[in-house]
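Need the bound structure for lanosterol, inputs here:
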Amino acid sequence: GVNGVAKPRNSDRSLRADKTDRTRWRLHSDRGCHIWHYLQSDEECKKWPQSTAEKWYMGMDTGLPELPRARTPLQAAENGFNFFSKLQLPSGHWGCEYGGPMFLLPGLVITWYVTETPVPESHAIEIKNYLFARQHPVDGGWGLHIEGESSVFGTVMNYTCLRLLGADADNPRMVKARETLWKLGGALNGPHWAKFWLSVLGVLHYDVVNPCPPELWLLPDWVPIAPWRWWIHMRQVFLPMSYIYSRRWSYPLNDLTRQLRAELVPETWETINFDARRNTIAPTDNYHPKTLLLRLVFWLLAWIWIPLLRPSWMKQRAEDHVWWLINEEDHNTDYANLGPVNGPMNTLAAYIRLGPDSKEFRTHLSTLPEFLWMNHEGMMMNGTNGVQVWDTAFAIQAAHDAGLTSNSKYIPVLTKALSFLEDQQIPAEVRHPNETYRQQRKGSWGFSTQKQGYAVSDCTSEGLKGVLTLQTHPSGAYPTLVPQQRLRDAIDVLLTMQNPSGGCASYEPTRGSTKLEWLNAAEVFGNIMVEYDYPECTTAVVTALHMYQSHDPSYRASDISAFKSRALDYIRASQRPDGSWYGSWGICFTYAGWFALESLACAGEFYDNSARVRRACHFFLDKQMDDGGWGETYKSCETGRWCQHPESQVVQTAWVVIALLEAKCPDVEAIRRALRLIMQRQRGNGEWAQEGIEGVFNKSCMISYPNYKFIFPIKALGMYARMYGDEALL
Ligand code: LAN
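Answer from helper R.:
Posting the output first, comments after.
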């Protein structure tokens, strides 16, 4: 591909719908909140020139120069950062596409359609282009994520999305997609979320949707299954879903949705027994089969509770309370919402409750585009409203590991990055933290922007480390933008994040039993009902606390030490017998292994004094490929076993190098071979090409982190040079 962009899944350009003029797209960023605009005139284009970053995002020629050939690790790291720094956005952060999941655009497009919101031509064209480009090259379907096999969920949702945006049912690509969909059994074999969205659209009937009773939100807090105990993403999706479900709101039938009934469902629509199809699901979609218990609960809800027992005042009260919670979520995030699933659903809830002219619905409509992103294939929907804080915090640390924080050429770049982190620290609690079940957040960082405003354990940690790295830099070259009290606020948040196990989860300590997984009704995802301990998140917190201690040793010293030692016990206990750790947010063992070994290094455990570190190193050394690199596929995440990738991956190779360096692994030659591979894959202008997808969530869905191909090679090269010197490797 061009410009570090992945090979398109489909390169058959003749079949693409239409094209916009890529030179007219601009990314507007307001304190990190991104909106892509399509400029209408040459005049406007002249006033607002296209930036290098915008060109790079869309796979256009950036014109960035060839750099002096790198022979040593530090030269390679600097070339990499030189290129990467050209992609920094004016607010000081880095942006990127954050695609992968293939179930997000349809929710947005269905929401636009049923609320009769006009879709700009430019957007409709590029969304269609993206979806066509991501169609499975052999069977014409779509999977749960861009690398996945075709499923009912992916195929039925994206097919619908294309039709709503004007794609023709006779288009050969659509015909092929339909064949695959029918082979998989059609829409009635879809998972819960597909059945829900298609019922909203009026293509299926609500009887096919497993019950989402809003009255669950009326349960007292002590009840073990009360929604406040669920993983935040599940409860925040369930919230508007239960509202819409309870209202049984669906779009009136029209010609297009009548046609969709015939296209998506092989059976004659009029004769379908929808109730009987609530639990039919294709094997491709059934990653987490529903338990017997859950099916029994659904049966009781659908046949007894809702039709016969539930008093109507209770339905009313539940809807009112759910609406109150939705409105608080909207208020607290300034309509950005927690994520790309509840965003469109909250929009629809506001439309249903308050109508098309309400300020609330209108504000949603103007905020939703913050999820959209342009790449070389077209327009996608990001998995969050961006990766701003996360990538920026890592970029600072990688630059530091490569000695670039002392390089006067990069001080302005990094100072800007620091000011971005300062701006993005969450300043205060929400207005009703207890009633909305929010975790303490004052002083924390989230993953994307402070407007979204959800504290994450590891994002707070990386943010804090990024700030400390620069503010305590021995050169004194960086201003103190975040005063000590605010650093202490961040520590206070981190200290709330530990589970009794010693481990840390993502947004909150775990609030419910893992047995809640018996009620996991989404079918397509695993481990979603509650928070779990993650070696990645735990390590980020441990290393942040560790770093902070040397900066402000008196602050909550005993709390911090106790936290660290419990966390380290968790890291030790979660190692598998083969020496590895399972990763939940990056693929997979390579990702978690790097974190775990960083934790252990923090505790003074290295190859020469720790059997478990030796086991971890050999787990990796045994898997080094002939070219010096490492590669595992996303199947590792699904299966829980190492699945070898046929090709080594730059990002994963960098993770393993970091792991081995943290461990002080004595096989330095293995590390050098890996670094040579990383250096050979670097292009003359300093960049690396996009390879396989890097990230994951919920075991089954992959997600892209395109900036990792800069951040981690730079970090690995820099760490090596610091330990073993900067001799030429090439
Ligand atoms: C993310 C992205 C970042 C990620 C890390 C910080 C890397 C991780 O260490 C902690 C968890 C977190 C914050 C995370 C949680 C789940 C997210 C938000 C995502 C993987 C990005 C997309 C995903 C979200 C759930 C997607 C919407 C899908 C649903 C099933 C609701």
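Comments: The chain has 26 helices and six strands. Residues 128 and 167 are 8 Å apart (CA to CA).
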